[in-house]
Amino acid sequence: MPQPFSSTFIITSKPSCTLISLFSFILLLTLFSLHLHHHHPPPTLSRKSLSLNSLSTSFLSTSDNNTISHYLHSLTLHPHLAGTPLSLSTALLVLSHFISLNLSAHLSNYTTLLSYPLHSSLSAHSNSTTTHFSLPEPHSHGVVLPYHAYSPSGSVYSAAVFVNYGREQDYNALEVQGVSVKGCIAIVRRGGDMSRNAVVVKAAENGVAAVVMYTEGDLENGVERGTVMNGMGDPLTPGWGSVGDGERLGFEDSEVVKRFPVVPSMPVSKEIAERIMRTLEGGRIPEEWKGTLKSFVRGIGPGPTMLNFTYQGEKKMATIYNVFAVLRGSEEPDRYVLLGNHRDAWTYGAVDPNSGTATLLDIARRYSLLKLSGWNPRRTIVLCSWDAEEFGMIGSTEWVEQNLATLDSKAVAYINVDCAVQGPGLFAGATPQLDGLLVEVTKKVKDPDSDYATIYEKWASSNGGVSIGRLDRVDSDFAPFLHHAGVPSVDLYYGKDFPVYHTAFDSYNWMRNFGDPLFQRHVAVAGIWGLLALHLADNPIIPFNYLSYTTQLKDYTSILSDLLEVSISLNPISAAIQEFEAAAKKADDEAKKLREQETTGQVLVLKKRALNDRLMLAERGFLDTEGIQGSRWFRHLIYGPNGVSESRLTYFPSVVQAISQPAGLPGRQASIQHEIWRVARAIQRAAYILDGELT
Predict the structure, then answer these.
(1) N-term to C-term CA, the chain
(2) Could you give the domains of the chain?
(3) pLDDT (tens digit, 9 = 90+) per residue, 452-495?
(4) Is 389 among the catalytic positions?
(5) Could you read off the pLDDT of 647-685 as tens digits, one per residue?
(6) From CA 282, how far away is CA 300, in angstroms rounded?
(7) One of 137, 389, 581, 619 is an active-site residue; which one?
(8) Is the pTM of this model over 0.85?
(9) In angstroms, what CA-CA distances link 139 with 79, 136, 287, 513?
(10) Quick one: which of 37, 314, 320, 527 has the most CB atoms within 10 Å?
(11) What 8-state DSSP symbol labels residue 590?
């Protein structure tokens, strides 16, 4: 296997003649296309002019809507599901692009357990009439059948019943009126903040025999594919990279079995779901469901309609490929700023994820132009193109697990873009020490939907003003970096939702006609993404401000206090936050003084290096080796999945889990207090790192 940041082009498994031919063909095509879209480099910058402001101006000046459009078109000519030959060809396309820009690039592979459909069918039987449903979307030749990855195979003939979003409160509402779902086939609409896995697991807990899932929206015939696996990464290598002939668990190992649902499921179009729901009778629609249900829904079942459900799939070992380009740092080459996007798609993937991939390719082009003008980053920048994200962030997770020790000591930050453009409006999430930098960068980039305003001005004038979300979610490749490795992270995208999500209609034509016809939003994302990395890589002092983290922790504690019994004390967390605030203030004052010093010399360099290490490593303090109860892989005690979909708390996940225990459970209060102490110790560890002194 290559070193994680190899300076040469490497394919880590022996290529066949066919692979070499394919690579050569793609390389020639890419070089030709780059020739067609050639840009003259910006004027050569002298060493004195290589300030962050001049670099930012130069970077922004080389944006090109048409170039990003061209990249996206090339990436979406064919479906490229992870583990398939067309997915490999897309990886080689990205690799050849990096090489053509004279960037050091390599490709690495992992052998992981993926899941594919073999056969599926669904028919309805009512009043002596049988209706056979066509499950694929119209005109979707060459696209994988709609399916749920890692669903077990199964055939069920039973009554249909509508269970709304499939939440615990939905099943409780049915139970109140005596509706039994045991042995039935549940019709579930996507939503309610539950993952597909959570929906299917909850259905099995309530005795449902199979699940039919649909997505509401404007698209009648689109079918939302997705995974129903629990957790992240290759299920056969939990906690370590799935490399070569390394250790793998067996399919029957309890750690593997618990990752998969026990009842089969399949996605269907809204049209098919509504045709079934129109035939249901019996039961009274719960009052709390009515506000968002179509008026034609008269009953919820079970029956009288019977469904004949069949799904056959296979889980098999497949090779996935991550692609990297490395811009080696000139002064701190052992400090890494990482930009990542996944490349694999359920279908054509114009929005998800290749709007992000096309943007990453354009950032690579613009960085290469800066290099031609005389620039090299102070710290190393790594451009990462992940595979098999759609199956559960597998490509990024395996890489993080393989490189965990290196990332622990050397990773500055990870900046993620998945779907760069879904529609209008910037949405950003970050760990709090990056809030100030994110705001600063958005003041420099033109808003794509305004004539004169910057992104920040448009953002600040929107309802609620500037709003930066937090990364408690587990839905993209920032998750292994933050939740497992404790690397400060950012996640960016334009547009909240889009109707062709995970369907065969997620194509270049949709983006060209609806998502971003002029590719201005793509340019805006590239501007923010690229400038964030430039600041993190080139600022002599890493631009983190942990006072923002202090404010956030105080807010979390205040909200939590309103939910706890009087007998449970939050004093440990409050005291730890005071220590953290003092350390954050000390680091901030130190950074200001070092920025003001005009002298140079080895002593000053060492002082900056020492402060940067503390700023970089403080986030790791929030990790705990015990992890979150029931999922030790998730080690971050401030942000992470809490497994309690009904909770409105999106922080302190281990505390939330303890609170969610039944009120009368023996030892519940002691369990909550223990988790509070664990969080307090995590905040204290981060404070010690930031302070930099021994106790």
Answers:
(1) 41
(2) 17-111+317-538 (3.40.630.10), 114-316 (3.50.30.30), 546-691 (1.20.930.40)
(3) 899 999 998 887 778 999 999 999 999 999 999 999 999 999 99
(4) yes
(5) 778 899 999 999 988 888 899 999 999 999 999 999 999
(6) 6
(7) 389
(8) yes
(9) 13, 9, 39, 18
(10) 320
(11) H
